[in-house]
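User: quick one, sequence for these tokens?
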């Protein structure tokens, strides 16, 4: 196993780890801020993610350790748990709380977490840790949940325990992702297709703006509320469950029902982005990366101007990408407000792209981005605990 984790577990707990699990992070190729509006999204799992080594103990205590954070609380078994400050361990604790409230008998646990996803960078480090914990508890205590149940549990932890009113995309992607495949997920019906990611001679670059993200949760929840306001206004004449139940033409016929201009802009993004995902799915299936790239740029522009979740750092990445003829398209990915962008770059040009982008960005923003070539990997699963590093 990577990163010498079994040895680390042994050093901390003076025992061999018995069980190991991994859940990836994700990027979303297109379809941003529409999962909670019943839209179509197109995420992929990436090969970075969260590892969990775990042993049940007989001490009635949950021992949380992470190689990424200094806080390592021990929490005694109770009937239910509450969020404790902003500590990283709240994500797995929320999952334990959910299982406990569902009536599952969970014993004490010795846990070691390690994530090689840049944390808080919009690559779903939180969905990754929630899903790996849910998968592990389901496996260790034979709770009998399906993978989709685990996705729903993880989302509910994020919504109700952590307080972020996110949609289902991230948890779904990190659970159901497949190597070299993208997921086309309908977030209303939860029907999905696993499609070849088919990037031809392009590779997927992930660019972390390295901007420290603040207040993402409150700004995110504000967008969710704005969409609900728009939906209510449209339903004076329509009868829809989600903004993504209508296409752009129908929206244009009824958009004057939305009085507040900002709210109208938010809804316009949502409806148009949903239409873009359909076109993008067709373009990917036809191996038309040039068209796919154009849709990525259009998605970014809309997130910048209509949804207003970009920022000068993400915009700088996309601005540079537009000047490079070897890039088919680029956009912010995830919630925004900093975090990561993605770009489709000709494979043989990747090194030059990284260097030129880093120079452009550093010059403009004042510090360097991190650029990775991303591999599309599998969803959550168990690992063999072996000692080799
Ligand atoms: C975050 C949320 C997702 C989704 C994206 C934006 O990653 O967790 O549910 O809304 O933002 O597309």
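Assistant:
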């Amino acid at each position: 196993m990577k990163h010498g984790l079994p040895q680390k577990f042994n050093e901390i707990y003076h025992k061999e780890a018995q069980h190991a699990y991994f859940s990836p992070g994700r990027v979303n190729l297109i379809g941003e801020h529409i999962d909670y509006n019943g839209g179509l999204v197109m995420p992929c799992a990436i090969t970075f993610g969260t590892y969990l080594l775990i042993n049940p103990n007989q001490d009635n205590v949950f021992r949380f350790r992470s190689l990424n954070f200094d806080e390592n609380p021990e929490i005694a078994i109770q009937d239910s748990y509450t969020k404790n400050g902003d500590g990283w361990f709240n994500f797995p604790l929320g999952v334990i709380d959910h299982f406990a409230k569902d009536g599952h008998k969970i014993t004490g646990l010795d846990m070691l977490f390690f994530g090689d996803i840049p944390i808080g960078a919009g690559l779903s480090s939180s969905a990754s840790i929630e899903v790996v914990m849910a998968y592990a508890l389901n496996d260790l205590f034979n709770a009998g949940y399906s993978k989709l149940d685990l996705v729903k549990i993880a989302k509910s932890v994020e919504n109700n325990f952590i307080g972020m009113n996110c949609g289902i995309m991230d948890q779904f992607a990190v659970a159901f992702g497949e190597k070299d495949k993208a997921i086309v997920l309908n977030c209303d019906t939860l029907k999905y297709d696993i499609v070849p990611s088919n990037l031809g001679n392009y590779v997927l670059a992930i660019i972390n703006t390295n901007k420290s993200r603040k207040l993402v949760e409150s700004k995110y929840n504000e967008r969710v509320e704005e969409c609900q306001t728009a939906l209510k206004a449209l339903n004076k004449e329509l009868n829809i469950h989600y903004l993504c139940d209508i296409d752009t033409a129908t929206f244009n016929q009824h958009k004057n029902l939305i009085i507040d201009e900002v709210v109208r802009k938010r809804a316009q993004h949502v409806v148009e982005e949903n239409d873009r995902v359909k076109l993008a799915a067709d373009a990917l299936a036809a191996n038309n990366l040039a068209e796919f790239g154009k849709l990525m740029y259009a998605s970014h522009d809309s997130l910048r101007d209509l949804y207003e979740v970009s920022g000068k750092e993400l915009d700088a990445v996309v601005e540079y990408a537009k000047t490079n003829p070897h890039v088919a398209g680029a956009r912010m990915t995830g919630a925004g407000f900093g975090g990561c962008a993605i770009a489709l770059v000709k494979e043989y040009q990747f090194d030059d792209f990284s260097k030129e982008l880093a120079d452009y960005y550093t010059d403009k923003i004042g510090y360097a981005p991190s650029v990775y070539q991303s591999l599309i990997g599998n969803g959550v699963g168990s690992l063999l605990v072996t000692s080799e590093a």
